[in-house]
Amino acid sequence: MNKDQVKGRLEEAKGKVKEVAGKVVGNKRLEAEGDVEQVAGKVQKNYGDMKEQAKKTRQKGKAVLASGRPIFSAATVTPSQPGVDASDH
């Protein structure tokens, strides 16, 4: 888990607390601030999630390259022209 994921989740929680507090005391501004913080937290959390996924994908790619295994094989290549049969090649 990276810092953007953590900060985003904290911001979401803080926003939820403000939203609920605003509803309880009847303060529309506090409620709106809570909504905004929740959205900002979700954005930051999602950004962190994407960074984490990119890191994992990069690590998998490095592992494949380091293994020496072929990345593509003839079985995975499909013809690029319509009407061309891959078995003809």
Overall description:
This protein has 89 residues and is mainly α. The chain has one domain (3-66). The protein contains two helices and no strands. It has helices at 3-25, 28-67. Helix 1 packs antiparallel against helix 2 (28-67). The two termini are 47 Å apart. The relative contact order is 0.14.
List the uncertain runs: none
Query: What overall form do the CA principal axes indicate?
Result: elongated
> Given the helix and strand composition, which structural class is it?
mainly alpha
Summed over residues and divided by their number, the pLDDT gives a mean of 87
Number of β-strand runs: 0
Helix content percent band: over 70%
Question: How many domains comprise the coordinates?
Answer: 1
The fraction of residues assigned to DSSP E strands is under 5%
- End-to-end gap: 47 Å
Give a quick account of the main beta sheet: strands, pairing sense, barrel closure.
none
Secondary-structure element pattern, one letter each:
HH
Rg computed from alpha carbons, rounded to a whole number of angstroms: 24 Å
